[in-house]
Amino acid sequence: QILNPSIVHVINFKEAAAILSSDTSFDVILLDLTLPDKSSGNLIAEILTVAAASPVIILTGYTDIDFSIKSISMGILDYLLKDELNAVMLYKSILYSIERKKAIAELKESEKRYSDLFHLSPQPMCLYEKDTYRFTKINNAATVHFGYTEKEVLQMSLLDIIPAEDRHKAVETVISQNRVLNQTYHAKSRGLKKSGEIIEVETFSTPILINNEECTLLIAI
What we know:
The protein has helices at residues 13-20, 40-50, 65-74, 87-119, 140-146, 150-153, 167-177, and strands at residues 29-32, 56-60, 78-81, 125-129, 135-138, 185-192, 198-210, 213-220. By secondary structure, it is an alpha/beta fold. It has a five-stranded antiparallel beta sheet with strand order 5-4-8-7-6, covered by helices on one side. The chain has a three-stranded parallel beta sheet with strand order 1-2-3, sandwiched between helices. The chain is elongated. The protein starts with 12 loop residues before the first helix and ends with a strand.
């Protein structure tokens, strides 16, 4: 329908918010920053709130590079200068913005599925930093089995849930297993509960990259 679009035009934010708050959906929103009832910063934030499902492209006469970068970081899909705008540029921007919005939505859905698998798993699972062994994420099953709260665990490292006499060996094992990304390693060890009880633990660990940081995902049985 991009070659024969249905276009809705409004002259202020109030009218836009009323339409966007209804059940009406749009493939793309072209946003002029000179609306009379909202300043540019507040306008962007509020448009993105009421139009979360639609890609937003800014059209402006201002060549403020810092503001354009900021607007992109807030969630705007493209930032076009009116004086440089032509039909081909606008056409491409609309197409790319729609596709990028779809890709972002699919990525968020994928991340949610993996997050659910992590948090709802009946097996204790955690994520810890490669070099410091500090926990960065832990699921509910792990807190139940080891007796700590999530807040407590996130202030601890992997070594804190290993008996003192086993820690040297544990470090050697972890170092040997933190070499190949996405490879799963198996080990048997002992774990230390908050109550002081020592339990037998079988672990499966996988070195992975999270936001370009090397971490290890560990499942304990």
